[in-house]
Amino acid sequence: MDLGRADPKGLVRESYAIEGITAPECRSIFLDWALGLAAGTDQHEAMRSLLGHYGAAAPDHPMTRIMREGLGAPDRPLRRGGRAARMGRDSAQGG
Q1: What's the domain range around 63?
Q2: Are 48 and 95 in contact (CB under 8 A)?
Q3: Number of domains in the chain
């Protein structure tokens, strides 16, 4: 994926340029980055592109760790809420 599409506002690029940046600061930047992606952009593909470009040069950088954690996160929540979660799948479907 093109770096301009993967990091349209340059937030990840800038995080790697900040001397002494901390993990909590990177988490905040990461959230802003994720919210700023264009609709339909594959976040995992964008993270892989950014890791390949920036993470390879800075494997111990906090943003590298944050993006690696992001790649390991599930795409959808694993927990179901509401009545279906309390009653179980069969009970919620009436049988």
Answers
A1: 3-92
A2: no
A3: 1
